[in-house]
Please model this.
Amino acid sequence: MEKFDVIVIGGGVVGTAVLRSLAAYKAKTLLLEKASDVATGASRANSGIVHAGYDAETGTKKALFNVKGAAMFPSLTAELHVPYQKTGSLVAAREGGLPALQALYERGVANGVKVEVIDRKRILELEPNISPEIAYALYAPEAGVVSPYKLTIAQADHAVINGAEIRLEEKVVSLEKTADGFAVRTEKGEYFASYVINAAGAGASEVNALIGEDAPTETHAVGDYYILDSKEAGVVNTVVFPLPDEKGKGILVAPTADGNVILGPTSRKVPHEVAEENEVTREGLALVREGVGRLIPCVNLRSVIRVYAGTRTAVGSDFIIEESKKVKNYFMLLGICSPGLTSAPAIGEYVAGVAAEALGLIKKEKMRPLPARFHLTKATEEEIEDKIASDSAYGRIVCRCEKVTEGEILEAIRSPLPAHTVDAVKRRVRAGMGRCQGGFCRPRVMEILSRELNIPLSKIRLGDKGSEIAPYEVKDGYEKV
Amino acid sequence: MKKFDVVIIGGGPAGMAAALGAREQGASVALLERDDRLGGILNQCIHNGFGLHYFGEELTGPEYAKRFRDKVLADKGITVFLEAMVLSLTEDRVVRAISPTAGLMELHAGAIVLAMGCRERSAGAIALAGTRPAGIYTAGMAQRLSNVEGYLVGKEVVILGSGDIGLIMARRMTSEGAKVKLVAEIMPFSSGLKRNIVQCLNDYDIPLRYSTTVTRVTGKNRLTGVYVAPVDEKMNPLLEKEEYIPCDTLLLSVGLIPENDLLTGTSVEMSRVTSGAVVDEFRQTSVPGIFSAGNVLHVHDLVDNVSEEAFVAGASAAKFSKGELALSETVSVLPSNGVRYALPQKVHQGEGKVKIYFRVDKVYRGRTVVVESGGEVVKRKKTLVMAPGEMQNVEVDKALIRGDLSIYTEE
Model:
């Protein structure tokens, strides 16, 4: 049985943040993820917003970690080469909405967030396309947008090059306390850990139940989103929210960190069994269109390139971020819904610190930096020429919409946490994320995966097990030319 | 920096014909193709039915492509760049491209022919509701996987949309032992060719339901089924009539979009109806020296028409590069009353004839197509049936042009 100091269960943005922070210590660490890649749950399908921190109730863990986390984003994303822009955010209100904005303003001030209430004239300077109905807004200049899956993947890669291990497609099926730690059994193997951190997202309550901790009832809210073609970039400059209601922060309009426009989400309660199916509904999409019309009416919905849904899992009103009192050396992270993405880096640091103290871990002198990936669209002519000279694959464009080269795809497949599915490649390098949605490049990406992984094309999957894209061989002799 | 009389972007049927057209005028030609071979989408179209008009015989797609490819490759005046992706072009005709062998290149062109073809509308573009499993493909992607890679995407199939590639794939998958349960078309008519409906669906007893759409899909990792429902006249699905069809595959054949992204930032005038450039009869765009032909200009039903159109574009581009494309005043071609679009949108006055291609907006029986210029009827053509899926044409004597041409149908 392999022995680890710490095992993290769950490879979302929180789990990988914890793992990366743990990699700063001299320790043997392992992350177990049930899916075929990290960032396949809520960390993949969310709004990608770095919230300023005025929204959470003062004194809550949400407020604490949100504000701490948001402050980490500029340097963290630079260090990990993750797309991030400090766009600022607006909570847009109509005539009569001033008292509600004022309340948000005061909460922002209490939380230590830079906020101001601005009038229509200032709003128009920031958002020329704002609805004529909007009279006031709460402006939070520190808010921003980030690519949530790229952050998750970069945290994972950074942890791996600093000695952490990640095993994919290993769902934890049993968790037992032993005299000096835990026996962690997955579908594939059995591990020993001195310390276990439950960061299993939508499955965190189930993991708690395995070890005999309280398994609080989770509520799952599915939200529908639209992604628009990058040619619509510029229709919105900041993250524009409506006034929040009891369901959440409402349907927003925002640029994405990768240059598209995002609209959504709705909030539809679903039972636990289907929480991870992420079903898009027609009604939900209609609600998004209505909501967007109230904020930026000129958004061109004919430019939609993708619709998807994501699930936020909540447990009560605040995050649960605490060491178990029942089970020694077991840490619980439950209900990390919004602002979970913003909070993740701060949560990671905090949790790793608690585990390190419990085990008496010593910090390394320094961590190896994560090398930047090559991106044709972001490189200078000289860099491109050099890259092609080193490997001609960098001159071969595979994804024509996003201008992704074969070299970049090979890098993704050979990265510290290797991509071995079409979607995993897509999340790392954007092949298939453009306006044709993989219409041309998917078979090419499949060919490259097949060649690199040395498996037949019929075994190449979109994502998790059972998602083979072209599972059958064509019989011989038909319509041969 | 390299200089060519004519730089052609795209080495499919349009690009290859344009190259031959330009060579006939003695121009030096660069042909840029992003794939590793010439031929474009023809290479995956292994069915027959190509070339009936152009060659007077029935060929498969690869055979049709080969006829042009052999000529192109044999012509020393055509420099072919394979795996070469054009990154940008300017109105003064500088083309930047990248390839694994040549690296970054800059080509200076006497004239440019756009021949980039089109792409398929995706599940995202139609905002398909439901889960996001494997098992949903554009028809062309499934076609490439079966005909080029040799792998079949699934066994129980529903097809949304009755575009030609969807119809062809219905037959293709049936031949491979798959069961095509339904072709659902949201419109009350097909956008595909009649002959494809007969040969690919009727001959195999594959049901085609008009005014029907897929309302949502199910399945977590692999598609498990789709819901279909009839739509009202405003295309809204009647959800109370929703019906579940278990299947592992959904093919989308819901429209083709000319790939004109390279023109973003240029002043080339575009048509909102065709999503291609506005052109004259030489297929010259509003920017002198930039020509457009094939599916990047407007989506064709028959490759034969693409070849014919692109040959003219290539020859005209060559003449332009030599300063020999003398042009008179233009008039506009204005479609109305049943004619959805007509191309070219501009015609020069002068001698000879001009062939005006057009599509109707729904199925018409027994109508007459009328072309008027300066208040006078210059052409009447009786038709039996006209359908949106079948491009029509009418030839007009240029000498009769007195002003804008209006083209319409009448009872």
Notes: Residues 376-459 of chain A form a domain with the Arc Repressor Mutant, subunit A fold (CATH 1.10.10.1100). Confidence is low (pLDDT under 50) at residues 477-481 of chain A. Chain A touches chain B through 62 residues (CB under 8 Å). Chain A has three domains: 1-83+144-218+315-372, 89-141+220-308, 376-459.
